């Protein structure tokens, strides 16, 4: 019992400390991620998530993003169900994260015209973590920066099996577009 | 004898057609979940929900993930389409929120999509606002 009380206080302390430390960080809780896995002349396979969380530490270029898989919305309900139950197994792996560092990031060099930065980090998806390099277009916005771009992901790299029956309907490389308005 | 046979064939055909229609509309083109009209599985306060996730995220996921839940708490932050309750529950609305609710106690119904470790918040989407209580 005593131990659990101590744990609770440590947790509270951790929460307050971490929120304090983020005072200068640029954040968003309503980032946007869209992915496109359609193949030519087949039904559109695409979804959008409007509640992606991301944090950027401007002094170092450290970047972290977290997306909840259940928050992806498809046009077709059955597709959303298959995505969650068969492919992403979102009951077991409820989130995907990207943690990394933007090389040579300097907030003072960011202007209203987009500048490319290279983000090197680890992408965790479906319980599998792999290194990834992403080019991020960063531009100045009111009270912060706009970070956007796209990258490609192969489902089999992350242990996502696609049955032969639907193999032709889902692209080998899935295009992921992201759009974050990071503010103070 | 013949009449009986035609009746039988007709009945069988009807059953097959009905099954086909059921499969087509009920399965292939099943409508999306309408969270706004679903009855909430749980009705708890924002602080209780976060406590559950802090204690045991796996257990909380089993209980709440993908479920329609109703959360009560004071509004600590609001933007066009997002209401944050007690700084702990993030509620994304499908439509823009017209009225102002800051500092008022409200009850929000939505689908729990999981726990956000970056900001220590539980996230809900497809939210709707129930009648505000004072």
UniProtKB/TrEMBL annotation, chain A:
Keywords tagged on the record: Signal
Keyword set includes GTP-binding: no
InterPro entries named in the record: Lipid/polyisoprenoid-bd_YceI, TTHA0802/YceI-like_sf
Matching SUPFAM superfamilies: YceI-like (SSF101874)
Signal peptide: 1-23
Residue ranges of every copy of the Lipid/polyisoprenoid-binding YceI-like domain listed in the record: 25-183
Gene3D superfamilies registered for this protein in UniProt: Lipid/polyisoprenoid-binding, YceI-like
PANTHER family in the cross-refs: PROTEIN YCEI
Name of the protein described by the UniProt record: YceI family protein
Organism of provenance: Flavobacterium circumlabens
Automatic annotation (TrEMBL), chain B:
Top-level lineage group: Bacteria
Pfam families in alphabetical order: tRNA_anti-like
Name the UniProt record assigns to this protein: Nucleic acid binding protein
Species of origin: Flavobacterium circumlabens
